[in-house]
Amino acid sequence: MAADLPKLSIYLHWPFCSAICPYCDFNVHPMRELQIDAWRKAYRDELRYAASQRPDGPVHTVFFGGGTPSLMPPDLVAEILAEIDALWGLAADAEISLEANPVSAAYQQLSALSGAGITRLSLGVQSLDDAALKFLGRTHRASDALEAYAAAREIFDFVSLDLIYARPDQSLAAWRDELERVLALQPDHVSLYQLTIEPDTPFHRLYAAGRFEVPAEDSAVDLYEVTQTLCAEAGLPAYEVSNHARPGHACRHNVGSWQGHDYLGIGPGAHGRLSDAHGRRATIATRAPQQWLQQVDAQGHGWAEDNRLDEVETQAEALMLGLRLVEGVAKQRLSQLGLQLDDGQNDKLAGLQEAGLIQLTPSHLVATPQGRLVLDHIIAELL
Ligand SMILES: C[S@@+](CC[C@H](N)C(=O)[O-])C[C@H]1O[C@@H](n2cnc3c(N)ncnc32)[C@H](O)[C@@H]1O
Ligand code: SF4
C-alpha cells in the first residue's frame, strides 16, 4: 500500500428488502424478480472502475449493507469477494460484515453466506416485544429473531444485534427489562438506535397527524443513560454514540470510516470517500436501482457525484465523525488536516471545555457523553 494513503474498505449496497418498514429512509426498494446476472455484472464493473480510481490495496474491511443483503444469493456474495480479492487483495484478517433481517436469516442461508466469506453478521432484531415489532411494521416476531440469533451464533464468530428504542410510550422500566434480555443473549456487539422520525416516511405522516408521540427530550436522555449503564455493566461499553461492544469487537469497518479511512461505495446510492495525490473525494452513486444498473451498463460505473472536498469540509467531517467515537479524534490527524488544537490556544476550545462538552487528552480531542449529543454545536464553535 502506498505509505501515505489511508487504509481501504469497501461498502456495498444491496437496495432490496422483503418489506419496507414505515420508519426507514435508507435507499430501499421492495424485492421482486431480479435479473440477477445484470446485478452480478454491474457490481463487478463498478468494482473495477473503483479500482481504477483507488488502486492500492489491500482491502481491510467489506460491509454488505442495505436494504437487506441477507437476501443476496450467497454465490453472488462469494463472486463479489473474489473480485475484490483479485482487484486489491483482501487482507488475511479482513472483517467482512453483512446485515441480516431475521426473516431472511434461516440456518441454511446464513451457513451459505458464511461459506461465501462473511465473518460478521449484524442482525436486525429491533425489539424483543411483539407489540413493538408490530408497531414498527416488522414482519418478524421476537421468537423469529431469537431463532435467527441462535443460528447466527452457531455459524459466525462475531454477531451484532440492532435495536430501536425510545419508541412511543416506552417506559424506562420496560426498556431496561428489554435491554437486559438482549444483553443476556451475550452478543458481541449491539447497535442501539433511538427511533428517529425521518422526513418522507409513513411514520412522519402518522407522527405529523398526531397518531403517536415519541418520548420527550428529557425522557430520551434518561433512556440513553440507562442504555449506557446497562451495556457497560454487561461488558459491552459504548465505543460510539449508538454502538457498544465487548473489548476487541468494535465494528472495524465503521470505526475506520469514522477515523477517516477510505471506503469505496459500490451499488445504488452508496457513498464513498477516497484519497488520491490531490486530496479527498466524496462519491455518491445513483439511488434508483434500475437507473444505477443502466448507468453502470452505459459507462462502467454509477457514481453520479464525485467531488473534491476542500480543507474546511475535510476538517468538519473529521471532527463530526471522529467525535462520535468515545476515544475521540487523534490530534495528529487534525493537525495533518491543518487544524491545530492546543490547550488554551483559542477561547472557543476553552469555552467548550468549561461547558463540559469536550476534553483534550495528550493525544486526542474527546467529546464528553453530553458533548456527543450536541456535536453540531461543537463543530460550529471549533470551525
Ligand atoms: C439497513 S438496516 C439493518 C438490516 C435489516 N435491513 C433489518 O432492518 O433487519 C439498519 C438499521 O438501521 C436502524 N434504523 C433504520 N431506520 C431507523 C430509524 N428511523 N430510527 C432508528 N433506527 C433506524 C434499524 O435498527 C436497522 O436495523
Ligand atoms: S429497516 Fe431494514 S428491513 Fe426495514 S426497510 Fe430499512 S433496510 Fe429494509
Give a quick set of tags describing it.
binds iron/sulfur cluster, 383 residues, 15 helices, 8-stranded mixed beta sheet, globular, Arc Repressor Mutant, subunit A, 16 strands, 23% strand
Would you write up a description of this structure?
The protein is α/β, with parallel strands linked by helices and 383 residues long. The protein folds into two domains: 8-256, Aldolase class I (TIM Barrel), CATH 3.20.20.70; 310-383, Arc Repressor Mutant, subunit A (Orthogonal Bundle). The chain is built from 15 helices and 16 strands. It has helices at 36-53, 74-88, 107-116, 130-135, 142-155, 172-184, 202-208, 217-233, 252-258, 289-299, 311-322, 331-336, 347-354, 369-372, 375-382; strands at 8-14, 16-17, 29-30, 59-66, 90-100, 120-126, 158-165, 189-194, 243-245, 262-266, 271-276, 279-285, 303-308, 329-330, 358-360, 364-367. The strands form four sheets. It has an eight-stranded mixed sheet with strand order 9-8-7-6-5-4-1-10, with helices on both faces. α1 packs parallel to α2 (74-88) and α3 (107-116) runs parallel beside α5 (142-155). The protein is globular. The two termini are 32 Å apart. S-adenosylmethionine (SAM) binds at residues 17, 23-24, 26, 65-66, 68, 99, 101, 124, 126, 162, 164, 193, 195-196, 198.
